[in-house]
Amino acid sequence: MTGIGFHMLPNEIILQIGSNSDDSSLLSLLLCSSALSALLLPVLHTRAFAPRHGRPAIQWAAAHGHITLVNLLLVNGVHPDTGATDTQPPALLEAVRESNSAIVQLLIAHGANVNRLNYDHNYGYETVAYSAAAKGDAGIVRQLAAHGADVDSEKDFGMYTGTPLHEAVRNGHVAVVKALLDLSVRVNEEDSNCETPLEIAERLARTGCTIQGQRASMAAMVELLVKACAHV
């Protein structure tokens, strides 16, 4: 039901139709005219604030890269850490895991806790900086550090404990290793396997690299870490 006939309906009926429409149909209605858009805007806001798949809207939006929705929620007073629990990662961690620096910046600007210790059954306890290092996103590591994130804190996951530098080395992320060293993290700290980052890099360079590119990455990390250790 569109066109003149639809616009002639009472506002209460139009609002009821909008409220019962799916997202695609609601968007079509909003695009019909500015008057209709203004009338249905409260419906859009109500839907935007509603939980998605059992999760707070801010977490869902960050996890799925919906920066417009994230911004709408934030400017309407939703806190970036809303709904964060041991089983519900905060929006900031979701954005970091998706390497979405724009949403990361938006959440930080609205007060997201950059040093919150987060728990996930797949990842254990970790900070967002640790997650960024594990992901291999040097840009977000630097971004977090610029806003006060501790890029040198340890992660504790049952049998393994280590720092973001350990994790970056273990995953072969040369750019992250360089970023962390530029940020003056501890280079001689041992993980729960009693290995320093340099020892991990040297071991993997000897035994863990089967592809030429991997060997080159490990060699580059060994060189970076040797230089860093020499200045400690």
TrEMBL record:
Q: InterPro entries attached here?
A: Ankyrin_rpt, Ankyrin_rpt-contain_sf
Ranges occupied by ANK repeats:
53-85, 87-119, 160-192
| The entry's keywords | ANK repeat, Repeat
Q: Name one Pfam family in it.
A: Ank_2
Q: Does the keyword Hydrolase apply?
A: no
Task: Indicate yes or no for the key word Repeat.
Answer: yes
User: Can you say what this protein is called?
Assistant: Ankyrin
